[in-house]
Design goal:
- There is one protein chain.
- This protein is mostly beta strands and about 325 residues long.
- The chain contains four helices and 25 strands.
- Bound molecules: 1-(1,3-dimethyl-1H-pyrazol-5-yl)methanamine.
- The site of 1-(1,3-dimethyl-1H-pyrazol-5-yl)methanamine has 11 residues, from loops.
């Protein structure tokens, strides 16, 4: 079995939303596919109406296949301090044609303001490793872990795009979506993430620096959070750039001509076009813009979010004993 689902960007590519069918008859919710977490949770009819502002809600009472997981609860806080919690059902979940009939669907009973204010985002679909799923007292499996054995290949791929819709594919590598070779690198999943070594970096046409650093491939994080020294060196090349703590990071004049950012995977080199690194304006007149590359200070590892991932075709491969990530140009 294999399947393919759309990944449609919200404004500024802050996140990408994917239609997911849940229950019988199917209820379609648009979820943020997140390789940096491992809970599939949804806005639901179990939460106060005051915290729902336009989102679709999963209604288990309208699904003939929904089964409550007695006494199971969950709660999760993300890197941006957004939060959700709730109870658990098992139900049919179908993503791009790949279906599992007893997927843990974590129905929210409460969410933080950040989620309430994003009318288009109906929840998250976590694709990190099941070891960090938050359901208690018994941990649940991610959708990918549940379907892996029925897929033609135990892998999924991300083809995110700049200000355009892309795809998440399950069980198949679509060779029409990339050019050249796929370069693979081993993943250390001991913290539950798709963590790997970035073999170095280059700024624009400057010499590539072979100083490696660890990072996680995280489709649910908007920006690329990189080592402070790397980030400092990048913005040194941008006239008028400055670290503005009131904005929470580096900003620069929106008209700035941004250098590209090159990152290494093994011996391969991939480039994020400068244009991708102008994330969004911070003011109404669009004079000052917020950088798509920011510091990972305080996190403990780099976070390779959408700003970086959209520059490549990425394979999340769990088909061998050691999981691995594949990167290809496109
Ligand atoms: C909701 C959400 C998901 C993620 C990435 N794992 N963040 C930072 N916020």
């Amino acid at each position: 079995d294999s399947g393919s689902a759309r990944a449609s960007p919200e404004q500024y590519d802050i996140q990408y939303l994917t239609p997911v069918e849940i229950g019988t008859p199917p209820q379609t919710l648009n979820l943020d596919v997140d390789s940096g977490s491992s809970d599939l949770w949804v806005f639901s009819t179990e939460m106060p109406a005051s915290s729902v502002k336009g989102q679709a809600q999963y209604d288990p009472s309208k699904s003939s296949t929904a089964k409550r997981v007695q006494d199971a609860t969950w709660n999760i806080t993300y890197g941006d301090n957004s939060y959700s919690e709730g109870i658990v059902y098992k139900d049919v979940v179908n993503v791009g044609g790949v279906s599992f009939d007893a997927q843990a669907v974590e129905a929210a009973t409460a969410v933080s303001q950040t989620f309430t204010t994003d009318a288009n985002d109906d929840g998250l679909l976590g694709l990190a490793f099941s070891t960090i799923n938050t359901v208690q007292p018994s941990q649940e499996k991610t959708f990918f872990d549940n379907v892996a054995s029925e897929l033609d290949a135990a892998l999924w791929t991300a083809d995110l795009k700049y200000h355009k819709s892309g795809c998440y594919d399950f069980g198949v590598i679509d060779d029409s979506k990339y050019t050249g070779q796929i370069t693979y690198t081993d993943v250390d999943s001991s913290d539950g993430f798709w963590m790997f070594d970035v073999s170095g970096y280059g700024i624009g046409n400057n010499t590539f620096q072979s100083t490696s650093f660890q990072g996680i491939a995280d489709t649910g994080t908007t920006l690329a959070m990189l080592p402070a020294q790397v980030v400092k060196a990048y913005y040194k090349q941008v006239r008028g750039a400055k670290l503005d703590n009131s904005q929470g990071g580096y900003v620069f004049p929106c008209q700035a001509n941004l250098p590209s950012f090159v990152y290494g995977v093994g011996n391969a080199r991939y480039e994020i076009p400068g244009q991708y690194i102008n994330y969004a304006p911070v003011d109404n007149d669009g004079t000052t813009c917020f950088g798509g590359i920011q510091s990972d200070a305080g996190i403990g590892f780099a976070i390779l979010g959408d700003i970086l991932l959209k520059s490549a075709f990425v394979v999340f491969d769990a088909s061998e004993n050691v999981p691995r990530l594949g990167f290809a140009k496109k």
